[in-house]
Amino acid sequence: MVETLADPAKIDTIKPEYFDLILLDVMMPQVDGFALCERMRGRVDCPILFLTARADEGSLVCGLGAGADDYICKPFGAAELRARVNAHLRREKREHVARLCFGEIVLNLSAKQLAVGEHEVPLTRGEYRICELLARNQGQVFSREQIYEKVFGFDGESSDSTIATHIKNIRMKLEQVHVSPIKTVWGIGYKWEVQ
Fold first, then answer.
1. What is the per-residue pLDDT for 135?
2. How far is residue 129's CA from residue 142's CA, in Å, rounded to a whole number?
3. In the chain, where does DSSP find H-type helix?
4. How many domains, in total, are found in the chain?
5. What does the pLDDT profile of the chain (195 residues) look like in tens digits?
6. CATH number for position 181
7. How far is C-alpha 15 from the chain's CA centre?
8. Residue 107, SS3?
9. Is 116 helix (H, G, I), strand (E, B) or coil?
10. Does residue 119 share a domain with residue 61?
11. How far apart are CA 161 and CA 163, in angstroms?
């Protein structure tokens, strides 16, 4: 499946950390391709290939320095692009670690860990799953019932009132590292919001 995005400012809406490969231009509206590559490289492990008209050596060095794996200058043929994409996918041997990053807060989705800066936050399995649910859906408000159902399922042996306790425990642990991404929306539920 191929996804395209015309407005690079909306990159967070398409979850690039789940892509197998990213093709990126250098000259884009509002956002410089090099800066966007550098920003994404903190979140994605997949190959990033620049397709660009900027053929000078300085731009090539800048692109690779920003974290790109290849730099393809225009004009190029479709067969060459296909061959390079296939070569990168074939060679891709890096262990993929899907992550969600919110400033200093990083959720390692593979290891099921949450860290703030250099500090791993010791969450229980249920606490981590609540954080992941809210973080994956940043800004969306979930009621206690919705959180309980999505995290513990219909067959959970507790009740949705335990969600308030879990949230309280998560907040205490995160406040020790000076972050508070879980906000209460009074009368409705909770959401993940990082300033």
1. 92
2. 14
3. 33-41, 57-65, 78-91, 125-136, 144-152, 161-175
4. 2
5. 788 888 877 777 777 777 889 999 988 888 888 888 888 877 777 889 999 888 888 888 888 888 888 999 988 899 999 998 988 888 776 555 578 888 889 998 888 999 998 899 999 999 999 999 999 888 999 999 999 988 887 655 556 678 999 999 999 999 999 999 999 999 999 999 987
6. 1.10.10.10
7. 6
8. strand
9. strand
10. no
11. 5
For residues 57 and 68, the answer to whether their CB atoms sit within 8 Å is no
DSSP of 74-86, one letter per residue?
SS--HHHHHHHHH
Q: Are 40 and 48 in contact (CB under 8 A)?
A: yes
* Side chain identity, residue 184: T
Phi/psi at 116 (nearest 5 deg)?
A: -120, 110
Q: Are residues 51 and 82 in the same domain?
A: yes
| pLDDT computed for residue 154 by the predictor | 61
Domain span at 181: 99-192
pTM: 0.53
**List of residues 6+ apart from 30 with CB closer than 8 A:** 7, 8, 9
Burial-class residue 77 by CB neighbours within 10 Å (0-12, 13-18, 19+). Answer: exposed
